[in-house]
Amino acid sequence: AQRVTQPEKLLSVFKGAPVELKCNYSYSGSPELFWYVQYSRQRLQLLLRHISRESIKGFTADLNKGETSFHLKKPFAQEEDSAMYYCALSFDRGSTLGRLYFGRGTQLTVWP
Amino acid sequence: GAVVSQHPSWVICKSGTSVKIECRSLDFQATTMFWYRQFPKQSLMLMATSNEGSKATYEQGVEKDKFLINHASLTLSTLTVTSAHPEDSSFYICSAAPTGILGQPQHFGDGTRLSIL
Q1: How many Å apart are CA A78 and CA A65, to the nearest integer?
Q2: Rounded CA gap, B82 and B65, in Å?
Q3: In terms of Cα–Cα distance, which of B3, B59, B9, B42 is closest to A4?
């Protein structure tokens, strides 16, 4: 079953423009949501998680339980933000052993 | 920082052979590691949870006898693709989270590209 949906496969913006990468999930309980990023020729790495409520590299994401969404936002995109972004969900909340279920990913390109 | 190493990074072999992929946590211990599979231009799909000293837990639809997982130590998990066929060609990625530290995120390996001729 599709648990995490990222509707945009590709997203392009110009430098300095706001960017929003969409993520919706389907789960009736209390999942933990993550955004992972993969820069060109690098391994997948954690960008942020909803329980941390922090901003990383200017990115923020708010969990909206009513809309079951966890959209990733940045007010002013930079060229170095160009990467593949994956939204992921874990059902094993509060555990170090959490299985992750990924969305299909959104390739973000920031043009100069 | 925490590093997860996968070996080999790329393997090409004939149909019918078995291929072993190693996943090592280099500077931390991991009771649990995870194996993912990624098809071209698609997402990572969780295959199984590898548990140190016990049997792996497989996701629905993943063949246990095809994808053998062994987690013999706190720093090493192996995935063996048995009697591999062209449809097993894919990108396999492992991840691990430090044992006993709540809230630690998973760290991912670089992945192994498997091509079956």
Answers
A1: 29
A2: 8
A3: B42
* CB contact residues (below 8 A), chain B span 49-88, against chain A: 49
What phi and psi, each to the nearest 5 degrees, are found at residue B37? -130, 140
Distance from CA of A20 to the nearest CA of B (A): 19
What count of residues does chain A have? 112
Q: Give me the pLDDT at residue A12, please.
A: 97
Q: Is A1 on the interface with B (CB under 8 A)?
A: no
So what's the pLDDT on residue A96? 45
Average pLDDT, chain B: 91
pLDDT for B37-56, tens place per residue?
998 878 899 999 998 888 89
Whether the per-residue pLDDT at A39 is higher than 90: the answer is yes
Contact call for A96 and B49, based on CB within 8 A:
no
What confidence score (pLDDT) does residue B101 get? 65
**A42: closest CA among A94, A73, A83, A93?**
A83
d(CA B18, CA B10): 14
- Sign of the Cα pseudo-torsion (B14, B67, A97, A91, in order): positive
**CB–CB of A77/A62 below 8 Å?**
no
DSSP state, residue A59 = B
